[in-house]
Q: What sequence folds into this?
């Protein structure tokens, strides 16, 4: 059973799932295969046990050359109301993460591509991704994905979700 | 029971090889706060995460006037290749020959595997140990928060 409190939520968080369900805060990176696996497992588990999922960025600039770029692209999609569709599409196809793929995805999601392009390079969006990432690291996150409970990394949840242990 | 050097202990005489062919000794600890991050092996996945995470908050270490170095028993050439592959700026110090000599003095050597254990030793500007930490296992990564809390205490 996951632990989480509504007080952990922020007004600008990306949240999905029923309000009454338990809160799962995940710091993740769009280039990370284990994050994709965690997403798949959470989606699968949600059919049996609905959860209220929060996505925050843990995009390390040195981990993958596209980590920060994809986090910013997701935020830009979010500014047009498509954070979760973008999130799901990238995790479903992590081999297609270059700029032309992102433009194609933006078009497929019905986004204004010019606005998407401008937003993903804006200082506000970059700062948002950096904020989440730094916050996670300063709280003790050491890998992706990191599940948080009550503001602290909860590795037991990671093993439970990703490795089914 | 761990042989890890404890807070308050003065730095023993030691010498580590730097990436540019020089040496880093206990004398180099003086005048600044130094964080020695001991990791098992270059290119091992867990070490990769650890240094990349610390790099992400390099500004927080700088704010505290703390200088980070990463230490392993790998040769300097391997360490430099590792650092460049990671894209991190944390300087590497090699405890390659005599193998693990400094790590043994500081109690951070893991003899069964012939490698440095995952440990952190923080020295104050007076070259005495301010904080030391030995991970429960080489697979356990000490968060950046632990080091920063130690620096702030």
A:
């Amino acid at each position: 059973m996951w632990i989480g409190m509504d007080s952990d939520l922020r007004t600008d968080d990306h949240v999905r799932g029923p309000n009454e369900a338990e809160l799962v805060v995940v710091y993740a990176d769009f280039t990370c295969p284990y994050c994709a696996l965690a997403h798949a497992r959470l989606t699968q588990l949600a059919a049996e046990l609905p959860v209220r999922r929060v996505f925050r960025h843990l995009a390390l600039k040195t981990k993958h050359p596209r980590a920060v770029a994809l986090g910013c692209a997701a935020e830009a999609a979010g500014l047009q109301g498509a954070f979760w569709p973008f999130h799901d599409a990238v995790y479903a196809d992590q081999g297609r993460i270059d700029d032309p793929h992102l433009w194609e995805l933006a078009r497929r999601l019905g986004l204004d591509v010019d606005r998407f392009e401008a937003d993903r390079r804006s200082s506000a969006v970059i700062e948002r991704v950096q904020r989440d990432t730094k916050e996670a690291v300063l709280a003790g996150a050491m890998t992706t994905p990191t599940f948080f409970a009550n503001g602290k990394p909860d590795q037991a949840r990671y093993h439970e979700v990703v490795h089914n242990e | 029971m761990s042989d890890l050097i404890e807070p308050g202990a003065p730095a023993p005489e030691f010498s580590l090889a730097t990436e540019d062919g020089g040496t880093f000794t206990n004398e180099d600890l003086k005048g600044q706060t130094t964080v020695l991050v001991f990791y098992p092996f270059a290119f091992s996945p867990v070490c990769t995460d650890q240094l990349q995470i610390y790099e992400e908050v390099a500004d927080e270490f700088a704010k505290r006037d703390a200088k980070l170095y990463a230490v392993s028993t790998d040769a300097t050439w391997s360490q430099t290749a590792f650092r460049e592959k990671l894209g991190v700026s944390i300087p590497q110090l090699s405890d390659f020959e005599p193998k693990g000599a400094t790590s043994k003095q500081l109690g951070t050597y893991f003899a069964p595997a012939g490698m440095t254990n995952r440990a952190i030793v923080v020295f104050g500007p007076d070259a005495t140990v301010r904080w030391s930490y030995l991970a429960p296992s080489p697979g356990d990564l000490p968060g950046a928060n632990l080091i920063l809390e130690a620096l702030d205490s």
In short: The CA atoms of residues 36 and 54 of chain A lie 15 Å apart.
